[in-house]
Fold these 2 entries.
Entry 1:
Amino acid sequence: MRKEEKQQQLMVGNWRMPVKVQATKAAKAAAAAAGSKKGKKKWSKGKVKDRAEHIVILDQEKYDRILKEVPTYRYISVSVLVDRLKIGGSVARVALAQLERDGVIKAVSKHSTQLIYTRATA
């Protein structure tokens, strides 16, 4: 296209759009250098939750507490025992199986991933 044709395309009615002035190479380089100094964004680590210290070997005190308190719960599951008694999940599963064998609690649902028990009423 010729220069006159380009200028004619820019004209709208009697109004003419201003021609954009190109920055010099030095100005472009300075702008790029100033922008690159910012660096990468620092991602926050978020809130770090403290790791719970659950016991994995039962002592006599904790065993007595399981025998005394758990049969009084209305809803009994592995997660309830882990949360309330601060014991590991494998210890909680063994304790629930033992309490069911003793007839102290009864099973409501025995799915492979979620065991739900309730107190045994006489």
Entry 2:
Amino acid sequence: MEFVIYDCHRPQTVAKTDLRPLLGKLSKNIGYNLLIIAFAVGLYAASPSLVKEAIFRFGPKQQEINAKATFGQINREEEITRQKLIAQEAEGYGVTTDFSLVIPKINAKAQIIPNVDPGNKEEYTAALKQGIAHAYGTDFPGGGGNIFLFSHSTNVQSNVATYNAIFYLLKELEAGDKVIVFYAGQKFEYQVSGKETVEADNTGWLTPDVNGEKLILQTCWPPGTSLKRLIVIAKPV
């Protein structure tokens, strides 16, 4: 019989693991991370410059902003000045800029009472004692439609004051004559384009018109009667 004696002092062989691929991947990841960190740090450091560059390239220029602000201020100042001049002109005529009519040729000037029902005698009689009546449902200056104003006339000079016959001389207006309306602080100028006589029950001029703004002045015809109506038409200038 043979005996095999195991040598416990003999070194054992241990399989070694190759760490090079793992270390390579780790190094690569670390490299990427370092690049990202470096890029982020650089971007943060450069951000004020980048913001300024972007504003310069794509944002409004300071000169443009200043110019717009300046023009806006100039426009506001011009508008204030213009309104003051309009108010002074109206005051010179003896009217206000709230709602008034001036016809220089016939020296007619009066306040306008807005939204008066032409079918309500009591209402329009009260309004005509104060001035000129603006027909309810018709437009206002600058609105683009028909503006219908009516007032008394008379055949006797002594009755002008009695009946507040502001349109006493409306018949004297001719094409080209100027009519001024002050409304809401603004001045609107019109030029007479024609006139005609219509039946007393003709209400066609009260209906809306899509053919542009017109100022329509109406009074009794012949003066001092209620037989017919004299219509004067004026257009914006």
